[in-house]
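User: Can you help me understand a structure? I only have the sequence.
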Amino acid sequence: MRGELPGAGGKKARVTWAGRAQVVRPLVGARASYARMALGGGGEGKPHLTVTGVRLGTMTVATTRGPATVPAWLFALDGYATPLKRAAATPSPVPRSPIGPTRTLPGRHVDRLAGVGADGRTVTVVATHGACDDGPRVAVLETRDSVVLSGSVVNGRYTGLCTMQAKLTPVRVRLERPLGERVLLDALSGAPVLYEEPPPG
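Assistant: Let's start by predicting it. Here is the structure, written out as tokens:
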């Protein structure tokens, strides 16, 4: 990091959609955004990026209401013509789930929402699976008000030696009708599946 980072200064972040009401949220400060971006960065002697400046701009993110324009910190990087964008709007509180967690059926968590297609019917989520299975799969149950996603794995009965780490893999799910404003739910936990900005790189 070279130079100074501005604070949030009590500013508000206006999140807008085409033809829909806007949402006003607290603005994430540039220092907090940089700290999250730099979390777990390379140590001494490892490749790294140098931030030379920052300004407030906008970016587009995927939401269940369609593409949203949100304030974003635009970090200028040494050696790059295009800035690194990080959303600067504080997320809204997580809504209460209309279902409880699964207690009797095995399954895997659907970790987060990664994107919604332009037609609203293609949803990409990040699902968990093991290091020795053949990857995740996600089943869908659609209702009027929600879309319940049930994660599992392909060929999960591996009998050889295997490490225990969990892997995160994008899975594309096709819906019968556009997602619209229906809430996405993880069947295993009963919790909403939220959009989460991926770490850089």
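Now, to help you interpret it: The CA atoms of residues 42 and 66 lie 35 Å apart. The two ends are 17 Å apart (CA to CA). Let me know which part you'd like to focus on.
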